[in-house]
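For homework, think about our next protein:
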Amino acid sequence: MINGLVIREFEDALAQDFHDINAEWINSMFRLEATDREVLQNPRERIIAPGGQILFVEAPDLGIVGPCALQKTGPTSFELTKMGVRESARGLKAGEFLLAAVIERANDLGADPLYLLTNAKCAAAIHLYEKLGFQHDAEIMAEYGARYERCNVAMRYVDPPAA
């Protein structure tokens, strides 16, 4: 536990937080695409029911400050998607705490590959992804990148070697 942060599992009562936190950051940098709206408005149907997961990070005195989803996209493939942290929690390391938990969950699920799609404008997030083991990957871009107009960065998780 860092700064009193805790991980919470998805429950329907948190669906609005999943929507609002993601819609806020996406709208601040881009625009919501049809695929965004579909997932954000129907997280149980689009993420959970097909075998994915959504985790949340909760901070003391702030409540839920960020979600992150693992969307099942094939027999063992998972996309790390819809990760955002409220501005009120910036500086608490909530994003790093959440990302580490989601990577651990993906490993538990046997995710291969675990990948993400993003945009170069999300430089701080890309730095965090690189720090925790994601590498830029042209194959992932070719296979999955066309789902989003804004996607110009694709990354695959590579288990860092043991120290």
Residues 6-157 form a domain with the Aminopeptidase fold (CATH 3.40.630.30).
